[in-house]
Amino acid sequence: MLATELLAQMPANDRIQANKVAFITNKLNLTPKQAEQFWPIFNEFETKRKDLKGTFKESTEMAQGEMSDNQAKDEVKKMLQGRQQEVDLEKEFADKFMKVITPKQLLTLFHSEKEFTRMLVKRLREKRGGRREF
User: Could you say which of 3, 75, 106, 108 has the lowest number of CB atoms within 10 Å?
Assistant: First the structure.
């Protein structure tokens, strides 16, 4: 069975993750030694980042129209704290990454993640026929 056929049979989240790994691997041009050390760090980073975003999402579930000004003010503080925690996490992992990859590769990683997300959103829009649902 071809790799593309195997990929097509995977659940959507797994396919996206597999494509993201391939995209980043290609962009960073990792040596085998770098890849061996890089991916466990990256996976830990992704897990912690998802956990952070999950806690942030939970705190902002209340509809804005139902909030008092004080509640809205508290939500703004939580939102900014969440963003700061994300930046702090990126700083922490930047140090870990640079023990394995070069600073240029790290910069490429950050750009590649954004590029992959834009590409994914574009494909999803094309799949939906260009409709915007926001």
Answer: 3
- The answer to whether residue 103 sits within a structural domain is yes
Which residue carries 């590769």 as its tokens?
Answer: 105
Pick from 22, 33, 15: nearest CA to 101: 33
Tens digit of each residue's pLDDT (9 = 90 or more) over 104-131: 999 999 999 999 999 999 988 888 876 5
Residues in the chain: 134
**Alpha carbon distance 45, 91 (integer Å):** 11
Q: Among candidates 48, 24, 51, 14, which has minimal Cα distance to 112? A: 24
* Boundaries of domain holding 110: 77-120
Task: Look at residue 85 and tell me if it is in a domain.
Answer: yes
DSSP summary character for residue 64 = G
Structure tokens at 58: 């939970």
Mean pLDDT of the chain: 85
Question: Above 80 in pLDDT, residue 64?
Answer: no
**Is 32 a domain residue?**
no
Does this model's pTM top 0.70?
yes
In a domain, 81, yes or no: yes
